[in-house]
Amino acid sequence: MAPPDVAxxxxxxxxxxxxxxxxxxxxxxxxxxxxxxxxxxxxxxxxCLQAVLPGAWLAFGTDTFVDALPASMxxxxxxxxxxxxxxxxxxxxxxxxxxxxxxxxxxMARAGARVVVDEVFLGGADSxxxxxxxxxxxxxxxxxxxxxxxxATGREVARGDRVAGMAAAQAELVHQGVTYDLEVDTTHAExxxxxxxxxxxxx
Length: 203
What we know:
By secondary structure, the chain is an alpha/beta fold.
């Protein structure tokens, strides 16, 4: 048992310590939220989850939202800006639209869709709080996707569609103050292995 002044942490799994049998939450899981830095392997896990989970799961992520923005919001004040060093800066208008997008995801889940969300909590605990508010009353599985910064940086270079430095900048930042039901680490584990670990926790 953790000392009173130490917050309990979510279990972290690798290939060697995956759960022996599935965990079943009494509340049916309606939404799975994956949070991790750029190039941490979330997208691959999402695709594998869609393959292994029973039924149809819809997948949405930060990239889905950003791609839907007009070009003017990807280069000007109020929108989203990708700095040369990998830092991501967002403005007030971006936050307003993001809030509407989050509410839309929640509405789909309330209407009966099961949803996997691929997120990057740039604001750490504050970002999670926005999602918690929107998803209140729904069965949500919170998953941290970690990856060693050096490994994520290598993936960033290989994929060629990200600003250099983004993976390293976000590797730890996005997890600050965030609480999870479980965590997976893609530094050495493959996407399918991580997906099966997560699927074992879906009620």
